[in-house]
Task: inverse folding
C-alpha cells in the first residue's frame, strides 16, 4: 500500500483496466503472446502517464525504466511491476517526488503490486554494487518512456559493471541459488511445487541468463527456453485460477490449472512441470560447473602456470579412467583416440567410469556418443560388456545419480531402455514417496549398491532395483505389469533364461516381504508357506530381502525402521528354514509369551482387571548394509503392554484410551492366551509415541481403561469433540477413501480383514468398535503406520472360534469400511 504523502492521483481512465481485463479473459491468448501483449499494453499506459505529468510539470531529463521480469516483457496476470524512475539529477526534488506519485498511485489503485525506485544513473550503479539482486534486475532494464539516452547509458554501464565484477559476484549468485534450493526444495520432486523459487524454477532460469551475460560461461541451450516458457505458462494459468499472485501449485488447484492449459489431468501437468524443472536444473548444474572451472583457471596467475604441475597446471593433463575415457579438468571426457561410431558401448563405459571415479560426465562427451550412435542401437541381446557396464554404473552408489541424470537429459537412457519413457518424471501422489518414479528407481539402485555384499548375485539385485516399479507407467497392478516388462528388459539386456526369471520374480513380489511381515501373523503356517511358494528358492529370497530394504530406504524416511527391518528379517529366517526343508514351521504353535507378559497375564487373572506396563525403548543401531553400524540409535517411542481378561470391546476401549491421551499408535499386536486350566487373557503389545508433551502415567491409563470397559467413559463422544476442535485448526487433507478387504488364503485358523486408511485420531478405536458390532472375535491384530497411512490386519473368527464364511467375511469388511467413511 502507498505510504502517507501526496494525495493519490485520480483513478486511471477506463481504457487500460478494461483492455487489461479483456486480454486476461481471452482464453485463446494464453502463452508468451499474452505476456508480451500485456507488457505492451502496460508500457503504453505508463508511458502516457509519464508524458502527461512530466510535461505538465515542465520536467525533462527523466526516463521510466522497466526492470526484472517486466523488463523482459514477461507479465503474468498477477505479476508485480518493477519500475525505476531515472533522472539526470537536475530536477527539483519536490517536482520529482510529485511525478513519482503520479506514476505509482495509479498502479496501486488498480491493486497491482509495485517495486519502485527513483534514482540517478550513479545512484543506480551504487545500489547495484551494494545489492546483487538490484544488479541482476538492471540486466533486464528496458526503456518505457522519457529520455532514451538515460536508459541506454544505464544499460551499458550495468552490463559493463556486471562483466567486470562477475568473477567475484558469480560465486555469490551461486550461493543464493543453493540457499534457495535448500529452503524451497527441488521443483521436479515436489507434490506442490514452487514454480519460481524452488530449484529448477524460474529464478534459476533467470540466474542462467545472468551467467550468460557475464561472458564467462553459458548454459546448454537444448530445451532451456521451452522449459522456461512452460513454467511461465503454468504460472499464468495458476494466477488466473486462484486470482492471486501465487507461485505455489497447490494440490487443490492442479486439476483446474491443467484444464486451463488444455491438459488431461493434474498428473499430466505435474509431469510437464517436472520435465521443465529437470531441464533447468541440468542446465544449471552444467553451467555452474563450467563457471567453477573458469574461475579456478583465472585464479592461477599466468606467470606461475608454467611452474605448476598436476590438475592445476592449466595444461589439460589427461588421466585414463577406462578404455576411451579419461579425466580432464575434473570431468570424465572421451580420449582423443575414442571412436564412438565404432564403439556402441562407449557411452556406458564412460558413464560407469565417471560414476566409479566420482566425476561428472562431460556434456560434450555424452552428445558426441549420442550423435555417433544415432540410429545404431545396441544389438539385442546386449553384448556382455554393455550389461556389465550398466551394472557397474548402478553399483557406484550416490555418484550414480548425477551421471544418470546427465544421460537422461541428453536422451541416452530412453534410447537404451525404451520402457523408461513411461516412468520418466512420473509423479507419485503418495506423500510417503520423496521422489518421482524414475528417480525412485535410481535411488533404489543406489541403496541396493550398499547391500551387494549380502547377496550372491549383485547384478540381479541392481537390475531388479532399477526395474522394480517400472510397471507404474502402465494401468493395473504395477507389480503384475512390471513382471512382464522386467522379463522383457532382462532378456534384451542379455541375461539368461534363469536369471531373467529371477529378475521378473523379484519385480513381481517386491512388496511381498514388507507387506507380509507387517500385516500377517508370522506364527501362522500359512503365512510362511505362501511366501515360500511365491519365491521358490533361498537365492531369490536373499535377493528379495535386500531389494525390500533398498526399496523402503529409497522411498522416504517413513518407510523403513529398525523395527520393520526386524520383522522382515524374522520372516526371511522362517521362510529360509522352510525352503531349506527344516522341520518346525508347520508344527510351530503360537508365539510363546515373554516372562513379563506371563507375569502380567497372571496378575490380570488374579485381579480380574487390566494390568499395564510402560517401557521407554530405543531400537538397536541400524546396520549400514556392509556389516558396520550406524552411529545413532533409532528412537521408537514407548512400548505399552496391556493384559486383560478376555471380554468384548477390549481392542476398541484400549485404542480409544490411547487416543484420548494423545498417544499415536505406531505398531501393535494382539494375542489371546487361552490355557486349558485358566481363563483366557488378551495381551496387547503397543508401540506408541506422544503427539506432544510428556507421556501419561500408567496408573492414569489403567484408570481410564477400567472406565472404558465398564462403560462409564464415553470414548466416542470425547473423540468426536476432539476431532471437531482439530478440524477447525487443521488444513483439509486430500486423501483417498479407506479400503477394507478380505485377504483370502492368508490363514487356516482365522479370517484376515485388512484395513488401509488415512491415519487419524481414534482410527483404531473405530475399527475395533466396528468389528465388535459385527459380532466377530479378534484373535490377533497387526497394526502398522507408514507416514500418513495406516495398514492394519485383523485375524478374526466367528462366535464358534472358526474362520468366517466368505459371505460373512465380506459383510464384516463392508461394515468396517462404512464405519471408517
Result:
Amino acid at each position: 500500500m502507498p505510504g502517507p504523502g501526496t494525495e493519490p492521483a485520480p483513478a486511471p481512465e477506463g481504457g487500460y483496466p478494461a483492455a487489461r481485463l479483456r486480454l486476461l479473459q481471452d482464453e485463446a491468448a494464453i502463452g508468451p503472446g499474452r505476456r508480451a501483449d500485456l507488457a505492451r499494453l502496460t508500457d503504453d499506459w505508463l508511458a502516457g502517464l509519464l508524458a502527461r505529468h512530466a510535461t505538465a510539470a515542465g520536467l525533462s531529463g527523466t526516463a521510466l525504466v522497466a526492470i526484472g521480469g517486466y523488463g523482459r516483457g514477461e507479465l503474468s496476470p498477477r505479476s508485480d511491476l518493477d519500475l525505476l524512475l531515472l533522472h539526470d539529477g537536475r530536477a527539483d526534488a519536490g517536482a520529482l517526488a510529485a511525478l513519482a506519485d503520479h506514476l505509482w498511485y495509479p498502479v496501486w489503485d488498480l491493486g497491482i503490486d509495485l517495486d519502485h525506485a527513483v534514482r540517478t544513473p550513479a545512484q543506480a550503479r551504487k545500489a547495484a554494487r551494494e545489492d546483487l539482486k538490484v544488479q541482476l534486475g538492471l540486466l533486464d532494464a528496458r526503456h518505457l518512456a522519457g529520455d532514451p539516452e538515460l536508459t541506454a547509458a544505464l544499460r551499458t554501464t550495468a552490463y559493463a559493471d556486471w562483466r567486470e565484477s562477475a568473477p567475484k559476484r558469480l560465486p555469490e549468485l551461486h550461493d543464493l541459488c543453493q540457499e534457495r534450493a535448500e529452503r524451497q526444495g527441488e521443483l521436479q520432486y515436489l507434490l506442490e511445487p514452487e514454480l519460481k523459487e524452488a530449484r529448477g524454477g524460474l529464478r534459476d532460469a533467470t540466474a542462467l541468463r545472468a551467467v550468460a551475460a557475464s561472458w564467462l560461461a553459458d548454459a546448454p541451450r537444448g530445451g532451456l527456453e521451452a522449459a522456461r516458457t512452460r513454467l511461465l505458462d503454468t504460472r499464468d494459468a495458476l494466477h488466473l485460477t486462484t486470482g492471486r499472485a501465487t507461485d505455489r501449485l497447490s494440490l487443490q488447484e492442479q486439476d483446474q490449472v491443467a484444464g486451463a492449459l488444455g491438459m488431461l489431468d493434474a498428473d499430466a501437468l505435474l509431469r510437464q512441470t517436472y520435465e521443465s524443472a529437470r531441464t533447468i536444473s541440468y542446465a544449471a548444474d552444467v553451467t555452474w560447473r563450467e563457471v567453477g572451472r573458469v574461475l579456478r583457471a583465472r585464479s592461477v596467475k599466468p606467470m606461475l602456470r608454467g611452474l605448476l604441475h598436476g590438475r592445476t597446471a592449466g595444461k589439460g593433463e589427461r588421466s585414463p579412467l577406462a578404455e576411451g575415457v579419461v579425466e580432464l579438468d575434473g570431468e570424465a571426457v572421451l580420449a582423443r583416440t575414442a571412436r564412438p561410431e565404432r564403439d556402441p558401448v562407449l557411452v556406458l563405459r564412460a558413464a560407469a567410469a565417471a560414476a566409479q571415479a566420482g566425476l561428472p560426465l562431460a556434456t560434450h562427451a555424452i552428445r558426441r556418443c549420442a550423435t555417433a550412435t544415432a540410429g545404431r542401437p545396441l544389438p539385442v541381446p546386449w553384448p556382455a560388456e554393455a550389461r556389465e557396464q550398466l551394472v557397474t554404473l548402478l553399483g557406484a552408489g550416490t555418484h550414480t545419480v548425477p551421471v544418470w541424470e546427465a544421460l537422461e537429459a541428453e536422451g541416452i537412457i530412453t534410447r537404451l531402455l525404451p520402457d523408461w519413457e513411461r516412468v520418466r518424471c512420473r509423479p507419485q501422489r503418495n506423500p510417503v514417496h520423496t521422489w518421482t518414479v524414475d528417480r525412485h528407481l535410481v535411488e533404489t539402485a543406489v541403496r541396493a549398491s550398499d547391500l551387494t555384499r549380502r547377496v550372491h548375485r549383485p547384478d540381479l539385485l541392481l537390475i531388479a532395483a532399477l526395474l522394480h516399479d517400472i510397471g507404474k507407467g502402465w494401468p493395473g497392478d504395477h507389480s503384475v505389469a512390471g513382471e512382464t516388462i522386467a522379463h522383457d528388459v532382462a532378456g534384451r539386456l542379455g541375461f539368461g533364461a534363469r536369471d531373467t526369471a529371477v529378475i521378473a520374480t523379484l519385480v513381481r513380489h517386491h512388496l511381498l516381504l514388507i507387506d507380509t511381515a507387517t500385516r500377517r501373523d508370522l506364527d501362522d503356517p500359512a503365512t510362511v508357506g505362501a511366501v515360500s511358494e511365491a519365491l521358490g528358492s533361498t537365492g531369490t529370497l536373499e535377493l528379495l530381502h535386500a531389494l525390500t530394504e533398498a526399496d523402503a530406504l529409497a522411498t522416504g524416511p517413513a518407510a523403513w525402521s529398525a523395527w520393520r527391518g526386524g520383522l522382515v528379517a524374522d520372516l526371511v529366517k522362517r521362510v529360509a528354514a522352510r525352503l531349506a526343508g527344516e522341520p518346525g514351521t508347520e508344527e510351530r504353535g503360537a508365539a510363546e509369551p515373554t516372562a513379563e507378559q506371563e507375569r502380567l497375564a497372571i496378575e490380570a487373572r488374579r485381579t480380574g482387571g487390566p494390568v499395564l506396563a510402560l517401557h521407554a525403548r530405543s531400537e538397536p543401531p541400524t546396520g549400514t548394509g556392509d556389516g558396520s553400524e550406524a552411529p545413532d540409535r533409532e528412537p521408537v517411542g514407548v512400548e505399552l503392554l496391556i493384559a486383560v481378561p478376555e471380554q468384548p470391546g477390549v481392542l476398541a476401549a484400549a485404542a480409544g484410551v490411547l487416543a484420548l491421551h494423545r498417544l499415536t499408535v505406531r505398531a501393535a499386536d494382539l494375542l489371546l492366551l487361552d490355557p486349558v486350566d485358566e481363563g483366557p487373557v488378551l495381551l496387547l503389545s503397543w508401540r506408541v509415541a506422544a503427539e506432544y508433551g510428556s507421556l501419561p502415567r500408567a496408573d492414569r491409563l489403567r484408570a481410564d481403561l477400567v472406565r472404558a470397559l465398564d462403560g462409564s467413559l464415553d470414548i466416542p463422544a470425547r473423540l468426536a469433540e476432539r476431532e471437531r476442535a482439530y478440524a477447525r485448526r487443521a488444513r483439509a487433507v486430500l486423501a483417498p477413501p479407506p479400503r477394507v478387504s478380505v485377504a483370502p488364503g492368508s490363514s487356516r485358523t482365522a479370517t484376515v480383514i485388512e484395513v488401509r486408511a488415512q491415519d487419524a485420531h481414534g482410527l483404531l478405536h473405530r475399527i475395533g468398535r466396528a468389528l465388535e458390532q459385527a459380532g466377530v472375535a479378534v484373535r490377533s491384530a497387526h497394526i502398522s503406520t507408514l507416514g500418513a497411512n495406516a495398514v492394519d490386519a485383523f485375524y478374526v473368527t466367528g462366535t464358534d472360534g472358526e474362520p468366517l464364511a466368505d459371505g460373512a467375511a465380506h459383510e464384516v469388511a463392508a461394515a468396517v469400511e462404512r464405519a471408517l467413511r
The mean pLDDT is 86.
